[in-house]
Amino acid sequence: MSDKHISLPHIEGSKKLPVVLSQSEIKSFITTPKLLKHRLILSLLYDCGLRRFELLNLQVSDLDFDRKMLHIRQGKGRKDRYVPLGDLVIKGLKIYLETDKPSVWLFTGNDRSGKTVPFSKGGVQWVIKQARKQSGINKQITWHTLRHSYATHLLEMGLDIVSLKEVLGHSCIKTTMMYLHISRLGRQQSFSPLDRVYRYKGTN
Length: 204
Hints:
Helices cover 43% and strands 8% of the residues. By secondary structure, the protein is mainly alpha-helical. The chain has a single domain, classed as hpI Integrase, Chain A, CATH 1.10.443. The longest helix has 15 residues, at 121-135. It starts with 22 loop residues before the first helix and ends in a 5-residue tail after the last helix.
């Protein structure tokens, strides 16, 4: 029956595991900015697991509130995909669309002449840097930290690895399986023996 055996690809030993924020750190981080636009930038990076260039390429027409989906056009590998939009993000986006009234690009900024232009990479980096500083989180945080946190939390919340591969837009499941090294699931979790020693009520 060896020819009938089904197995997942071997998980190669990770050389360096990425930084991941806890769920409480995510809540603190994305609610820190005062501007709604900045909170939405952080929220979409996390809640949709977007790459930075995917966020910057978003257009107003990519929002599908009826189906609660976000259309990612020409992601990595020139592949389109859809990812779910959460109710909290939709609520914020509706307010943002009403107040800021973006016409083509979802997020915009101004150049030195005051002309409206698509939001920049540097702008995203600034938003993340300021949120990290103001939230008091000591971990090193980049836009990719939010994507790593998204993937890890989805696994811990019960999403299967194949579905995770699709929403992340990975071409190979081996890339996705890295998150099995990080997430707290599967076999019995390791624990602190010292905690158990001090919780022990018996006698020596």
